[in-house]
Design a protein that fits this description.
Order of helices and strands of chain B: EHEEEEEHHHH
Number of domains of chain B: 1
Distance between the termini of chain A: 52 Å
Shape of chain A: globular
Number of strands of chain A: 16
Shape of chain B: globular
Largest sheet of chain A: 7 strands, mixed
Largest sheet of chain B: 6 strands, mixed
Order of helices and strands of chain A: EHEHEHEHHEHEHEEHHEEHEEHEHEHEE
Distance between the termini of chain B: 28 Å
Number of helices of chain B: 5
Helix content of chain B: 25-40%
Helix content of chain A: 40-55%
Radius of gyration of chain A: 21 Å
Radius of gyration of chain B: 15 Å
CATH topology of chain B: Pyruvate-ferredoxin Oxidoreductase, domain 3
CATH class of chain B: Alpha Beta
Oligomer: heterodimer
Structural class of chain B: alpha/beta
CATH superfamily of chain B: Pyruvate-ferredoxin oxidoreductase, PFOR, domain III
Largest interface: A-B, 29 and 25 residues
Strand order of the largest sheet of chain A: 3-2-4-5-7-6-12
Number of helices of chain A: 13
Structural class of chain A: alpha/beta
CATH architecture of chain B: 3-Layer(aba) Sandwich
Number of strands of chain B: 6
Chain lengths: 390, 171
């Protein structure tokens, strides 16, 4: 293991180098650019043996990865924001074709107004595209997810593409100390990709076909089963990962001081660290505060969320997203989990960090104090409640 | 936790200095943690740039911009304003590269040192001044960070400038 001071993008690229993709196709976009630049350098210096395909658009980047996967290769691409939206059509081809491609998405705001800074509206808008979606908090987790992503995506029970989300700038461009695993460890953890879901001259078959009304929905049912199966595969993969690399992860969610918590913030991505620090501070003042970090939005941690929130007095969902005309999408998903489990706890939605706006410790303290007293159902940090459902 | 805010103009290497400090702090000690990040935005030569370094003996998980700093290091004196003292913790210091005295700040002619070492930027000089004044990292670890994270052909001159800056403060 070697220690380096790296950005989230660079750490993710190191993880991908260890995962040995055979084809990389990418189109640069801020704040993803560094990851594809580093991978390009690795291919150039020979430390990564892959076909690096420069394409003319994100639509082509993912199309190329789909073609590579259909030929039986391990494929990687990366994008962000408008790039992700431009490749949206292909997202569904990848998931429907059950091609276990890994893509890094640097979470960034969507236009208009045009903005390059971080929020999560790009990836959350694609929750229905049939991809596994993880959200890393720091550079070490980003590197580790890069390695784990292929194990999870390529598992025959899953066969689903994997989108690894890193908060733009706050994670992709922030430098911190990262342990880089040894090549030998990585090879032991991640075997090479073997599949029957590929073009094979010896065994010709029809791929990427059409299916009419009578059979189409059976494929969709199977696709749903595949992504649901990832819940178990993620746990197994993390167990093996901990044995080889010594770092433990906690499945679809990560709970912090929630056992006896009265007030819990549910969030995702790199803002979770500041939430935990604020919870610590409030605990010193006698407020029983806790934090749930959602690590995977798909498959969604329905049971985990219901279990951890059931004894709380109130919770807030803090997210960098808004589904205009309704509420934040993470809030919708969390409420559905509670409803299905028959859990009835007061919940409030906090929208913040859109277009990269800073979320301060004071903002998070205010969330904890607001939800203890009751507030609007949907609140924009620094602006106010939207007045609905108070 | 120690927090340092770096102010410079695009192209002056303020963020590189922020990174070098983080790398130096953590380079030989698994019990030390650092974060370094720029004020995010399109990179434009000449535009004001802020960068942040956070140093601690436990993992740094607060990724928000520093609200109160122990040191503010200013690479270009046209970016100095008296209001910056509001960003300082009690006992904090402002260090400025300038040929003119500034009340309430420690002023050094970093450009003079940079010129001696044929460097177009003052970032490693300011890094040296900071560590000389603060002792947040040793000059040996700072040297190792330059060796680990700067292109080979400019390492020697930057290390020379850094060490001269440390000496400058010691005198």
């Amino acid at each position: 293991m070697s220690k380096k001071f790296l950005s989230g993008n660079e750490a993710f690229a190191e993880g991908i180098r260890l995962a040995r993709p055979q084809v990389i196709s990418a189109y640069p976009i801020t704040p993803q650019t560094i990851v594809v630049e580093r991978l390009s350098e690795m291919v150039e210096d020979g430390s990564l043996s892959a076909e690096y395909v420069h394409v003319e658009s994100e639509h082509s980047a993912l199309s190329c990865a789909i073609g590579a996967s259909a030929a039986g290769a391990r494929a990687f691409t990366a994008t962000s924001s408008q790039g992700l939206l431009y490749m949206a059509e292909c997202l569904y081809y990848a998931s429907g074709g059950r091609f276990p491609i890994v893509m890094m998405n640097a979470d960034r705001s969507t236009a208009l107004p045009w903005n390059i800074y971080g929020d999560q509206r790009d990836s959350l808008s694609q929750l229905d595209s049939g991809w596994i979606q993880s959200y890393a908090e720091n550079a070490q987790e980003a590197l580790d997810l890069a390695l784990m992503s292929y194990r999870i995506a390529e598992d025959k029970r899953v066969s689903t593409p994997y989108m690894a989300n890193l908060d733009g700038f706050v994670l992709t461009h922030t430098y911190e100390t990262v342990d880089i695993p040894e090549r030998e460890q990585a090879d032991r953890f991640l075997p090479s990709y073997e599949t029957d879901n590929r073009i094979d001259l010896e065994n010709p078959k029809n791929m990427a076909f059409s299916a009419g009304p009578d059979t189409n929905y059976i494929f969709k049912y199977k696709e749903h089963e595949g992504i649901l199966a990832a819940s178990e595969v993620i746990k197994e993969t993390e167990k093996d990962f901990a044995e080889i690399f010594g770092r433990k992860y906690s499945g679809l969610t990560e709970n912090y001081r929630t056992e006896d918590a009265d007030y819990i913030i549910v969030t995702l991505g790199s803002i979770a660290g500041l939430c935990r620090e604020t919870a610590d501070k409030l605990r010193e003042q006698g407020v029983k505060a806790g934090v749930v970090r959602i690590r995977y939005m798909r498959p969604f941690p329905n049971e985990e969320i219901a279990e951890v929130l059931k004894n709380a007095k109130a919770f807030a969902v803090l997210e960098k997203d808004i589904s205009f005309g309704n509420e934040g999408t993470v809030f919708t998903n969390v409420n559905s989990a509670l409803k299905k489990a028959g859990v009835n706890v007061s919940g409030y939605n906090y929208i913040g960090g859109l277009g990269g706006r800073n979320i301060s410790a004071g903002d998070i303290e205010k969330i904890y104090s607001d939800i203890a007293e009751g507030t609007d159902s949907v609140n924009f940090i620094g602006i106010g409640g939207t007045g609905n459902g108070k | 936790m120690k927090e340092i805010i770096w102010l410079g103009r695009g192209g002056q290497g303020a963020f590189t200095a922020a990174k070098l400090l983080g790398a130096a702090y953590t380079i030989d000690d698994d019990g030390k943690y650092a974060l370094a990040f720029p004020s995010f935005g399109p990179e434009r030569r000449g535009a004001p740039v802020r960068a942040f370094t956070k140093l601690d003996t436990k993992p740094v998980t607060d990724r928000s911009q520093t609200e109160k700093a122990d040191y503010i290091v200013i690479l270009d004196d046209t970016l100095y304003s008296p209001q910056l003292s509001e960003l300082l913790r009690d006992g904090g210091q402002i260090i400025v590269n300038s040929k003119n005295d500034i009340e309430g700040a420690r002023v050094f002619d970093a450009e003079g040192i940079a010129t001696d070492f044929r460097l177009p930027t003052v970032n490693t000089v300011m890094f040296g001044l900071l560590i000389g004044l603060s002792g947040v990292v040793t000059q040996d670890n700072a040297t190792e960070a330059i060796k680990g994270y700067m292109p080979k052909k400019i390492q020697e001159r930057n290390i020379g400038a850094l060490l001269r800056a440390v000496q400058e403060v010691a005198e």
